[in-house]
Amino acid sequence: MRFILFILITLGIVVFLNPLFPYWVIMLLIGVGSGLLGLSGFQGFVAGGLGMGLAWLGQAIFISTSTGSSLPNKIGELMGLGSGMTVVGVTAIIGLLLGGFSGLTGSLFRNLFRKEPDNLYRG
Amino acid sequence: MKYFGFIVALAITIALGIAVSKPLGPVPPLAPLLDPNHGFWQNSFSEDELANDELRLTGLSAPVTVVYDENLIPHIFAENEEDLYRAQGYVTAKHRLWQMEFQTMAAAGRISEIVGPVALELDRMTRRKGLGYGAELGQKYLEENDPETLRLAEAYTAGVNEYIDQLSPGQVPVEYKILNYRPEHWSVYKSLLLLKYMSDMLVGDRDLEYSNLRKILGSEMLDKLYPDFPLENDPIIEATKIWDFTPLAISKPDSIPYPDDILVIDPLPQPEKGTGSNNWAVSGSKTKNGNPILANDPHLSLNLPSLWYAMQLTTPNHSVKGATLPGALGVISGFNQNIAWGVTNATKDARDWYKITFQDNSRKAYKYGNEWRPSNFRIEEIKIKGEESYLDTVVYTHYGPVVYDRTFRSDRQDVNFALKWTVHEGSNEQLTFISMNKAKNFTDYNIALDSYAAPAQNFVFASKVGDIAMRIQGKFPLKWKEQGKFFMDGADPRMEWQGFIPNEQNASTLNPERGFVSSANQHPVDPSYPYYVFDNSYEHYRNRRLNQQLTEKEGITVEDMKALQFDDYYLHAKEALPVMIALLGTEFDSDPAAKKYLDELKSWDFFADPNQKAPTLFYIWWEKTYDNVWEKWSKFGAPVVSPNNYQTVLLLTNSPQDEFFDSELTPTKESAADHVKKGFKEFLIKMQEWEANEGDYSWANYKKTSIQHLVPQFASFSAKNIYTGGGRGMLNATSERSGASWRMVVEMGDEISAFGIYPGGQSGNPGSKFYSNFIPIWANGEYLNFNLRSKEQSEGVLFQTILK
After folding, report:
1. Which ranges constitute the DSSP H helices of chain A?
2. CB neighbours (10 Å) of residue B652?
3. Which of A59, B93, B189, B708 is the most buried (most CB within 10 A)?
4. How high is the pLDDT of residue B199?
């Protein structure tokens, strides 16, 4: 549940705050969010990555279909990536990696302060 | 363990965050570029999708309305001139910021700051020519003599800077994002620099090559192969013109001691071949409606974003429309309610070189007559991206900067040449355009031109009351015959320019009897003009075609003038081909490939339309023949220029057996026919290769006209292989990389009817639909309606913004 919630939160952070702040502020916010929610490292990575990756993917596709601009294709050619679709893909992957590692780091930071359960039977 | 895991994750995250913020070799920083909220994605929006009803522009005395027509051409309505130019700066920056800054960076020799050490040589060259020095003098001139123009230029500057300050990260032009730098503030200096940059683009000299030729060939042969006036001179100012003034006296020294070495230094870069222009005006007596019609098409390197930006600028007192130069105030080629004007380049050897004799190695003094004059040192600090700055010391003499010296472009330790050039003198070209924009009649036009110095232009004029005129305006030095054709000795005071031709004695004409005025970069005047006129690059074909057409035509309409701008009659081929075919004889008649080509050539009507094959055949055959004829020039081992096409055709026609056709490299004695045949053989080989690799050899496919982004490496921002006709030496001078950069036709009646087009688009943003949308229209020889608009006119409005 918290996993799904965090994907949505990350999406919200990117959609509403990324227009105002550069990507590294968004990374910081995702890290903080992931820590506050107390996700596991894996969950933090996947949810943060999906959130930011999907948001960037969605924004890139939205801009490119709504404007019909040839710019994605031109940038793709310029960067040696081929078509604009590849640029959309690379944008999403960069978003995924940035969001993912931010989420992972936030979760692992929170874990540093989590008390070791003391009622476990250790044999 | 968990500490370790956290630290690793943190390290990876930070490393990743930093890695995507930094350029990796040539790859720009990825995250800022790809971030959909700030990166290039934001440049996908066209201007109409980002339109605002209102924008803030501080310093205005009253609100300014900007109406964009459906082609994104802004029509600015302001209450006074200061507001007008403030808004012009703001609106131009909004659509062309990267370009205007990049061009001034190039003019200032600051490209290394953006792209790194690869541009250092280029920047040194630019600075050593003293463009920045010239702009500083221009600014000083304004400060001391013309506070009014300075005030307007400051308003323009403030408008540009207000836009830069308002710029959101997403709207930063995409080139900045890719090249990873940000715009800096504009200044009056930069506006002036831009006009100097135009001089640099348009002015060349061949003093070095002519010095060598004089030494190698001797004066007699030089005059024969490179005459000052061509056989069929068809000058700009009609040959029948009577010069009704007393020329200033010029004293020629008895003996002229030219520096006598063969020079093996590299010449300065020259304007691209094919840069030139046409303009003309026909009087009402020759037009269908009885109104004068004016036409102008400047030919320049074809680039994106386009050099030109179309605008209408309106105050309660005047309303002017046409092509502006992003970065400069006002309209450069256009019309208002009363007059129309246009420009073509009027080159007249404006650069001269003086050999400097320094007293000693410190170069602190140089010989001048019997004295040693102190020199000045100007230290140019060239900032280089990713490296320490480069400090270049340039020595300045009273002539100008010493361009070639021991540290720059020279194998020889003793080569020191100072450049004397009119751009190094304080002048006020900006005032010319500001005044011309408001001019009401022929008198105003002349007053406006009086402050214009460089680059010299042929200013064509037509007015509503029916006047047509042409004036060749620039600051032209007074020279004795052949002064400045060759390098001169700077130690000899007799070599100095002896002043300047007074403005009122510059060649000009008003309402000539033939009913038209015209210019196409040819010789400005007939030999009867009392001053020495020389340049290597005068045109010999476009002018004759143009004048012949204008002479023949009666009942002229705007449509006729449009057709004439798009005329691709290949006069050079018309004159050369029959001679070449005759000299070729029957030797190749049995070769089927040769016969096919010759048949195509023989049935050609001499128009270079895009689908024609014969222009390609002629072009290659001529090129090979020409190279063969002048091949022996290459054995001189020093930079020279070959005689031009016109002179070469004359020689082939009139003296095919002359001894200079003998190559001297072979035991046999060659005649013109041998070169034509050898050229034909090479042509056959080249055609074979072309047909094997490319197939189609129709003209458009062969010349492959391209319009290149200002950064040539940004290939996807360029337009390639444009299907259009024309070429060098034709009125439609569209060649591989240069051509009509702006076409305008205006009929000056009670209702002014105007048309214009340029190969580009109003937006400088490669992501906008307005970036290159004019290109297909231009390539077809079609035009946009350029009529003046009123503020209230509601049809064809894209959107409207109020600046306040």
Report:
1. 2-12, 23-37, 41-67, 71-78, 84-113
2. 25
3. B93
4. 83
Which residues from B are below 8 Å from A97, CB to CB?
16
Query: For residue B199, how far is the Cα from the chain centroid?
Result: 8
Phi and psi at residue B295, to the nearest 5°:
-135, 145
Q: Which of A23, A102, A111 sits opposite B31 (nearest CB)?
A: A23
The rounded distance, in Å, linking the Cα atoms of A73 and A79 is 10
The pLDDT of residue B521: 92
What ipTM did this prediction achieve? 0.92
Measured CA distances, B267 to A119, B107, B132, B798 (Å): 88, 19, 21, 49
Distance CA B392, CA B17 (A): 39
pLDDT the model gives residue B197 = 87
B401: which DSSP letter? B
Among B256, B217, B211, residue whose Cα is nearest residue B481: B256
Are B65 and B71 within 8 A, CB to CB?
no
Neighbours of B719 (CB within 10 A): 19
Phi, psi of A24 (to 5 degrees): -75, -25
Using an 8 Å Cβ cutoff, are B582 and B654 in contact? no
Residue B86 belongs to what H/E stretch?
Answer: helix B81-107
CA B378 remoteness from chain centre: 28
Across the strands, what pairs with B343? B459
pLDDT at A123: 53
Q: What per-residue confidence (pLDDT) applies to B332?
A: 96
Stretches where chain B sits below pLDDT 50 are none
Give the pLDDT of residue B2.
74
Partner B, chain A 55-114, Cβ-Cβ below 8 Å? 56, 59-60, 63-64, 67-75, 77-79, 87, 90-91, 94, 97-98, 101-102, 104-105, 108-109, 111-112
Low-confidence ranges of chain A (pLDDT < 70): 115-123
Angle subtended at Cα B514 by Cα B513 and Cα B518, rounded to the nearest 5 degrees: 115
Q: For residues B301 and B202, give the distance between their C-alpha atoms in angstroms, rounded to a whole number.
A: 10
Helices (H), B472-541: none
| Predicted pLDDT of residue B289 | 95
- Preferred mutation among A75, A87, A93, A108 to probe B, highest tally of B CBs within 10 A: A75
**pLDDT on residue B425:** 83
- Three-state DSSP at B712 gives coil
User: Secondary structure of chain A: what % helix, strand, coil (to 5)?
Assistant: 80, 0, 20
